[in-house]
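Predict the assembly for these two chains.
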Amino acid sequence: MNKKRRSSIYVGVIVGLLAFIVVGLIPRDTNPETPQERSHRIASELRCPFCNGESIADAQSSIAADLRDLIDEQVASGMTDEQIFGYYISVYDDRVLLSPPLLGWGTVLWALPLVVAGGGVVALLRRRRSGTAPEVTSSRAAIEDARRIVATDIAELDVQEAAGELDAAEAARLRQSYLAEQEALAKAEPQAAPAPTRSRARSLVGGGILVVGAIALTVAVVVTVRDRAPGDLITGGIADQEQTRDLTTVTNEEMEAVIAANPDVVPMRLALAGRYFDEGNFSDAVRHYLEVLDREQHPEALANVGWMAYLNGEVETGLAFVERSLAITDALPQAHWYIANIRYLGMQDPTGAVAPLETLLAFESIPAEVRDAAVSLLDEVKASL
Amino acid sequence: MTGNAASPEDVEDSSGSPQRNMGVWIAVGVGVVVIVFGAVFASRFGVDPDLVASPLIGQPAPDVTLPYLEFEADLNLAELKGDIVVVNFWASWCTGCRVEHDALLTAAGAYRDAGVSFVGILHQDRTATGIDFLDEFGRGDPYRYVLDDRSRAGIGFGVLGLPTTFFLNREGEIVGQVNGPVSLDVLVRTIDAIILGGSVDPITKTGELENR
């Protein structure tokens, strides 16, 4: 009994851990969202209040189009998701959210599957417990044995009678008694183990703990998953392949050697170039970035080369490189920073610097010091207009 | 051999009762869950969503600036603070708006000198068709007709369909809302209540809301 119960606990624990790991391994979108993706995601989580349960993203009516425009504007103005959702809740109330919030009756809705699942597990454990009790197995085995013996007895009786070892009357008497026994055995059910008095209270408490545990675990998982930054795993921010390789302990020289041996490995070369770039060693950084650009039009390489060219006094070239980077993707925050600086300081064009700075500030993931720098530059730019 | 086999009666006595108890427990549990959820959903079904007070009741009216329908100027709602304001969302395609039109014109005239402003916001419609509607059914005097540019006012007021009428007190807070065609009776009762400092129904439903 203990063995079986323990093994079922092991199975439960293993399944739970596996589920946890699987959930944890689903990384969020690894690329930072573009503003368009962000407003589309927000619009698809909001119910169009007059369109039969369609989301604002899907609804065809012209007011839904007006709502999408407003969301685009709110995203561009740098409002956070919470602020935007909060605005629509303040206007239309909670019903505007397509998934019910974890508040009030929403909690009941979310908890229902958990309660049902928990109840099922409890019922299953209780059934198993009474079904696998050793007294029951032995008596079931004993009944099976008795049935087999009676069947053998009857078969032997037939053989003996055919061989003339028994007279007909004796055989008939024996057969009757065997058949009676067989009939009784066919009806017999294994005797269940007497329900131990402790098991009821314990299983109720255990079941309760199990249900509470399952709910707590699920809530914990949901909260953890939800609060992850884009690209982060449940265990922390290690989603990008480049980041999972711990390059911090490798020296520049070792990386040079690896790259010299594998000149086509672009990620390693980019990492090294980025390192030189951060160190201010522009000549080595440019050398590697240009090698990268020989192989692919990588936006980070384009943006950083452009910035270095600008810092080197080649304003037009620098602008061209950064613009090529932005033509490939607008998801690199530094490209917007570069273009704002080049336009404002290099081209004396403060008007052209406003939009890239506003785009940069719309990124949620940029570090505080970058945000501060962008805000103060934006103030300066606006003051000079 | 027979000693090992339990008779049917033994089985019934010793194993039946815990199983029967468990069955009772499960039945009670299922019953409780069904009753609780039935009660919850039944109570929710009973609520007409058009009759749920807007979360904006008691809040300041949204800050919107809208172009006048018939001349080149903008109206900022905040300009009217100090007056009681009746904000009516309408459109030429809305049949309920034809029903309520006369009541609004009559009330606008009746409260002309009582510090009550009427604002008609043309929602989800074009200026030209809105003006055609006014040519056909008449204009209030005094009455401000403006265009809901990109639906910003309708969204800001949480309008769920037409016609919808809001009542703003002199502090510019939304104190009442009427979903459906508003009657002269409701207009008079609500405006008088605001003037006299009485209580205003936060939400009244007079008919179905229309959407294009």
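The radius of gyration of chain B is 29 Å. Residues 8-45 of chain B form the longest helix (38 residues).
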